[in-house]
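**User:** My hope is that you can spare some time for a protein that puzzles me. As I understand it, each token names a local backbone shape. I would be glad if you read both lines and explained how they fit together. The protein I mean follows directly.
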Amino acid sequence: MTERNEFNAIDESPAEGDSETRRSADSSERAYNTIRKLLVEFKLKPEERINEVQLAKTFGVSRTPIREALNRLASEGFVSLTPNRGFFVRSLSTEGLLDLYELRSIIECAAFRLMCERAEDDEIERLRAYWDAIVEGYRDQPPDTILAEDEGFHMLIAELSGNPELVNQLSAINARIRFIRRIQIEHRTHDKRQVASHSAIVDAAVRRDVENGVELLRQHIELTVSATQQALKDALLKVFSPNEPTERRHRGRPRNAEKLTE
């Protein structure tokens, strides 16, 4: 497996002072990046149980950095943790997806209204400055960067609403759709022209044009969910062979779920 090469030099060449701490943090970070790559490339199947022992053996590290990486990925929504059973790859099911995006739209539109009503001019300027700082190269960034910057943009609107509960709820929704959104960003349906809608939303915020800004946000999210549905369909075709029996395709955990998929 090529992932071992990405891990070479982990826990080697001890440094002085706090070398143990640095090596541990480095191992955890590399485990996180490598497992995340396995997930988005579907080398670990949806709903598959993740074998921590096999991952540790493959990467040549202890289970500690693997467990730290998986806990981090669980907090970000890329894997799920089932008590007494372990970590599992998130499902690619579209079930509940529309409900989540509908809730996201409601929260973000409410946040925009409150931001326009409550935020000071210098706070609105924060939103404009955030977007100005990333807009030029936004289209050409790697998918992970685009995802992080896009989430940051929408979370800032929620923060500027002055309602911490909106922030908490949007953060929870992001965790549940992040894996799926990451897939969509790399998919052919990802329309990089959506960058213009971010700029229009900022302009509406600066003018405190509530109705126009809310409509722009609503349309922006609707376009995203439509593209995501298509990306998920293609992802499922990629993961499961077209010749695979329908029963197995919808049954849950794939065969050999205890093993790391090569």
Remarks:
- The chain has a mean pLDDT of 81.
